[in-house]
Design brief:
The complex is a heterotetramer, with two copies of chain A (218 residues) and two copies of chain B (297 residues).
Chain A lengths: L1 E10 L2 E11 L4 E5 L6 H9 L6 E6 L2 E2 L5 H9 L1 E4 L11 H10 L5 H14 L15 H13 L5 E5 L7 H16 L3 E5 L3 H5 L4 E6 L2 E5 L1
Parallel strand pairs in A: 3-8, 3-9, 6-7, 7-8
Antiparallel strand pairs in A: 1-2, 1-4, 4-5, 9-10
Chain B lengths: L2 H17 L1 H36 L2 E7 L5 H12 L4 E7 L1 H12 L17 E6 L9 H9 L4 E6 L2 H41 L2 H9 L4 H34 L19 H28 L1
Helix pairs in contact in B: 1-8, 2-6, 2-8, 2-9, 6-9, 8-9
Classes of the chains: A alpha/beta (218), B alpha+beta (297).
Bound molecules: adenosine-5'-triphosphate (ATP) (2 copies) and magnesium ion (2 copies).
One adenosine-5'-triphosphate sits at the interface of chains A and C.
C-alpha cells in the first residue's frame, strides 16, 4: 500500500527526516511516535504528497509520488483522509460545510453528501453543532470536525496527526474505537501521537522516530 | 463540467460572498469607483464629440434677397426656406443691419464707406442645416435650387472651416481613445489588484481545498464566479452613479460650473452595456490572474 | 487575586458557563479540567478579559473586569501570560519576534528584551529555532513558542490552555517543571488540561467542569 | 510617545512590509496607478490652462504708419517696437496687403470698393505682447507712448475678446477643479479600500497584539507608518510614470496624436510635491480608517 525507499527530507540545512525505509500494508494500523520535532508530521505529509522528499522514492498503491501528475494526485487525495495537527478548517464555512466539502470535491450527489456528512458528525458527537463556525467551537470540537472530514469519504488510507491532543480521555476512547472500526472495514490507518496512553494496550505496530531517524519498530 | 458542478460552484460562490461580505463590499466599492472614473470620462468625451459634431455639422448659408421685393414675396421665401429638410432659419438680416455689421467689421477703415449715397447691401436670411451628415449634403445643388426661388438674388455658403473642425474632431477622437486606453489599463490594474487582495486574504481556503483533493478548477471556479459578480455589481453601481451624475449636470439650471448652456446627452445603450460588460470582464480577468497566483506558490 | 461571583456565559442559546463561584489566591497552582466543550477555555478567557461574562462579576487583583477601562486592561494583560490552545502566533514574524513582542509592548529596553527573550526560548528548548517562522516549526515547537511568550515577562498570573497537548512526555515534564518554578517565584498559575498524567502525582487544586458547571474541586 | 517607541514602530513597520511584501506591492501598485490617473489629469489640465493663458494673454496691437514715411523711418520704428518689453513683432502689413485683406473680408460686398481711385489704407506693424500678466499691462499708456513716435499714424488694440477668453479660462478652471475633486475622492476611496484589504488580510495580527497587552497605539502605529510608506512610494512611482509620459509626449515629433505642435509644459515643483504629499496623506488616512475598523469588531 505505502512504501518508502531511502527517503530523506531537509529544510535548508535542517534535516527533518533521514534515510527512512518503510512498508505499510493494506489494512494495517500503525502508530508513529517520537519526541516533539522528531519528524512525525513531516513523514505523514510526505506520504500525503504535500511535500516532495528531498531524496528517495515514495509509492502509494504502486504510484510513485515523484512522478505523479497534478490531477492524479487530486484523485489520490480523495481516497485518503488526513487529520491535520492544526485542523486546517475553513473558518468562513460552517461545520457542516467543512465536512461536506471532502465529498463535494469528488462530485458526489447532494443527497448522499448530506447523509454521509450527518453520519460523520454524529460519529464524533457534533450533531448539534453543525451550523456553527469553527471559531465558535472548543479546541476539542474543532479537532473532531477535522476527524469527521477525514473519515467522511470512507478513505482507503486514513492519516491522523496527533488526533486526540485536545480531547478528554472519554472522547479519545470513542475516537480510537471509530478509527478501529474504520480499520476493520479495510482502511489503512496511520496515527502520529505522543500519547503513551493511546498506544498502551495495543498490539499495533509502532514506529519510533527521533531526530529524523527511524529508531525502532514494534 | 456537468450541471451538478455548476450548482456547487455557484453555491460556494454565494456562500463565500456571504462569508466574506466585508471584503467583497470593499472590493466592489473599488471596482465601482474606478469604473465611475472610466465611465465619466466616456460620458464627457462622448459629449465633447457630440458638441463638436453638432457645431461642425451645421452648414450655414446666406440667402441674399433682391432689393425690390415686397413683404409677400419675402414671407413666401421665408416659408420655403423653413420647409427645407433639416434646415433651421436662424435670422433675417435687413439692409440696415447688414450695413451696421459691415461698419463694425471694417473698424478703423469704415471711413471708406463715407462717400456712399445709398446702401448697396442686400437683405438676407441666414439658415443652418443641423444634425445632418455634412458629407451627404449637397450644398452646391442646394444653392442652385434656392437661387431659382423668385426674389432671391444670390446664395452663399462657406465650406472651408468645416475641414478645420473635422480635423479638431479627429484630434479629439484620437486623444480620447488614447486616454480611454490608459484609463482602461489603470482600471484593469486596480481591479485585478483589488481582487488579488481579496483572494490573498483567503489563501488558506485555496490550500485547504487542495488538501481535500479538489481539482484546480473546483477551487478556482467559485473565485472566478465571485470575481465576475464583483465586477458586475461594481459595473452596475458605477453606471447608476454616472446616470445620477448625468441627471445632476443636465438639470435645467446647471450654472454651478458657469458652462454656457450646452445640451448634455447621455451615453447610448451600447456604451452603457459596455461599462457593465467591462466590469464583468475585469472581474473575471482579475480573479483569473489573482487565483492563478496562489496556485504556484 | 482572582475572584468570580455567580459568573455565567452564554453564546446565543448555548450556555458555556453557568453560575461559577471561584476564588484563586496569589501564588496558587490550579488545574482546570473537564471533558471537551465543558467550558475550560471559556473560563480562562473570561479571567483574561477577552470575553465579558453574560452575568456575574470577575475581580482580578481587586479590579472588576466589567468596569475596567480599555487602557487599564492593556496594562493588566502585560502582567499576565496566556498560552492559547491554538497558540495564536504571528505567522509573519520570527519565533524571536513573536516572543519579544510581549516585552516590547511594555516599553522594555531593547537590551533587556533580547536577553529575556533568549532566556525564555532556551527554557522551552528552542534556542536553535529563533530565526524560523512559526509555519516552519512542528506543532510541539509552536506550542513551546506560545509558552515562551507567556512566561517571558515574568507574569503575576500565568494561564495555560492545554499547554502540553502537542508535547511528548519528556518535554511535558520539562514544561511542568518550568511552570512549577515560575509558581515558586510567586506567580499564580492556572492550567486547563485533559491530561490525567499531568495531574496524576500532584497535590494541586483541581477544578472540574462539566457542561458549564463546576462539579467539584480537589 | 518616546523615542524608543518610535524605534519600535518603525522597526515593526519595516518588518511587516518585508513579511507582507506581496500585499504591499499590490497595494502600492494600486495607489500608484490611481495617483497616475490623478496626476495625468492635473498635467493635462495645467497644460490646457497654460495654452489658454498664453493665447489669452497675448495682447496684439496694430501700429498704423503714415503714408509718406521713408525706409529709414520705417526701420527706426521697427527697431523701437522690437525693443518694447515682452513685445514680439509679428508682421509688417503693407498698404497692398491691407487692401487684399479688406477685399477678402468683405467677400460679396467687395464691389463696394470698386469706385476707389487710390488705396486709402495705411501700412501697419502687428505686435504681440506675450507671457505677461494682462492685468499689469497698461495698453492705453502704451498706445499713447507709441503714437508719439515719428511716422506713426495711429495705434489700435482690441481688448474685448480678452474678456471672452478669460471667461473660457475661468470655466476651464472651475470644471477642472470639479473633476479634480471627483478624482481625488475616487483616489481616496480606492486607496483606503486597498489599504483596508491589506490590513484585513492581517487582522489576526491586530488581535494577537491586543492579547499580549499592546495599547491601541502600539498596534496602530506600524500600520499607519506602513500606510504612509505605501502612499509615499505609490506617489513617487506615480510621479516618475507621469514624468516619463511627459517626456514621451513632449518629444519633438509628437505627431502620433495629430496634435498641432503645442508646447507641452511640465508641472511646477509645487504640483509635483503635491502628488507625493497626496500619496502620503492618502496612505495615512487610508490606514487610519482601515485599522480603526478592526478595533471595533
Ligand atoms: N517548512 C519548514 N521549514 C523549516 N523547518 C521545518 C519545516 N517544517 C518542519 N521543519 C522542521 O522539521 C523538524 C520536524 O518537524 P515535524 O513537524 O515533522 O515534527 P513532529 O515530529 O511532527 O513534531 P511535533 O510532535 O512537535 O508535532 C522540526 O525541527 C521542524 O522545525
Ligand atoms: N464564540 C462562540 N460562539 C458559540 N459558542 C461558543 C463560542 N465559544 C465557545 N462556544 C461553545 O461553548 C462551549 C465551551 O467551549 P470551551 O472552548 O470553553 O470548551 P473547552 O472546555 O475549552 O473544550 P476543549 O477541551 O475542547 O477545548 C462549547 O460547546 C463551544 O461550542
Ligand atoms: Mg507534528
Ligand atoms: Mg478549550
Amino acid at each position: 500500500m505505502i512504501q518508502l525507499f531511502r527517503v530523506s527530507k531537509s529544510f535548508g540545512t535542517s534535516k527533518a527526516l533521514q534515510d527512512i525505509n518503510l512498508r505499510i500494508r493494506k489494512g494495517e494500523f500503525v502508530f508513529v511516535t517520537g519526541p516533539s520535532g522528531a519528524g512525525k508530521t513531516t513523514l505523514l505529509r510526505l506520504i500525503f504528497g504535500t511535500e516532495p522528499p528531498t531524496e528517495g522514492q515514495i509509492l502509494i498503491r504502486g504510484i510513485n509520488l515523484n512522478r505523479i501528475r497534478r490531477t492524479s494526485l487530486d484523485l489520490l487525495r480523495r481516497r485518503m483522509g488526513f487529520v491535520f495537527q492544526d485542523f486546517k478548517l475553513l473558518s468562513r464555512k460552517t461545520v457542516f460545510q467543512n465536512v461536506a466539502i471532502a465529498l463535494e470535491v469528488t462530485g458526489e450527489r447532494p443527497a448522499i453528501v448530506r447523509k454521509k456528512t450527518h453520519q460523520a458528525l454524529k460519529a464524533v458527537g457534533l450533531s448539534k453543532k453543525e451550523e456553527l463556525f469553527p471559531l465558535q467551537l472548543s479546541g476539542g470540537e474543532q479537532q473532531r470536525v477535522a476527524i469527521a472530514r477525514a473519515v467522511v469519504n470512507d478513505p482507503l488510507i486514513l492519516i491522523a496527526d496527533e488526533p486526540t491532543g485536545n480531547l478528554d480521555p472519554d472522547i479519545t476512547r470513542d475516537i480510537m474505537i471509530l478509527f478501529r472500526s474504520i480499520n476493520l472495514r479495510g482502511t489503512t490507518v496511520i496515527i502520529a501521537t505522543h500519547s503513551q496512553e493511546l498506544m498502551k494496550d495495543t498490539e499495533q505496530r509502532i514506529i519510533l522516530l527521533k531526530e529524523g531517524r527511524m529508531l525502532r519498530e514494534r | 463540467m456537468g450541471l451538478r458542478n455548476w450548482a456547487y460552484y455557484s453555491k460556494h460562490a454565494f456562500i463565500n460572498i456571504f462569508g466574506n461580505r466585508l471584503v467583497h463590499a470593499i472590493s466592489i466599492g473599488t471596482i465601482a469607483s474606478s469604473l465611475i472614473l472610466f465611465g465619466s470620462f466616456i460620458l464627457l468625451f462622448y459629449n465633447l464629440n457630440h458638441w463638436m459634431l453638432e457645431w461642425g455639422q451645421s452648414l450655414s448659408m446666406s440667402v441674399y434677397l433682391q432689393d425690390e421685393i415686397d413683404q409677400k414675396t419675402k414671407a413666401r421665401i421665408e416659408s420655403l426656406l423653413k420647409n427645407l429638410p433639416s434646415a433651421e432659419l436662424k435670422e433675417y438680416i435687413s439692409k440696415d443691419r447688414a450695413m451696421e455689421d459691415l461698419i463694425d467689421g471694417l473698424g478703423v477703415h469704415s471711413g471708406l464707406l463715407e462717400g456712399l449715397k445709398e446702401n448697396p447691401l442686400p437683405a438676407s436670411f441666414e439658415i443652418i442645416f443641423k444634425d445632418v451628415n455634412i458629407r451627404q449634403l449637397d450644398p452646391q445643388g442646394m444653392k442652385e435650387e434656392i437661387e431659382k426661388i423668385e426674389g432671391v438674388q444670390e446664395v452663399q455658403y462657406s465650406e472651408e472651416w468645416l475641414d478645420r473642425l473635422e480635423g479638431l474632431v479627429y484630434v479629439l477622437k484620437v486623444a480620447g481613445f488614447i486616454i480611454a486606453g490608459f484609463l482602461c489599463l489603470a482600471v484593469l490594474f486596480i481591479t485585478t489588484n483589488t481582487i488579488k487582495l481579496t483572494i490573498y486574504s483567503r489563501r488558506d481556503e485555496v490550500e485547504i481545498l487542495k488538501l481535500v483533493g479538489a481539482t484546480d478548477w473546483f477551487v478556482k471556479m467559485p473565485f472566478l464566479i465571485e470575481g465576475a459578480i464583483q465586477g458586475l455589481v461594481g459595473g452596475v453601481i458605477a453606471l447608476s452613479t454616472i446616470s445620477l451624475l448625468f441627471l445632476l449636470f443636465s438639470m435645467d439650471k446647471v450654472h454651478i460650473i458657469g458652462l454656457p448652456v450646452l445640451e448634455i446627452v447621455f451615453l447610448p445603450m451600447a456604451h452603457l452595456a459596455f461599462i457593465i460588460l467591462l466590469g464583468l470582464i475585469l472581474g473575471l480577468i482579475g480573479s483569473f490572474i489573482a487565483v492563478g497566483r496562489f496556485f504556484d506558490a
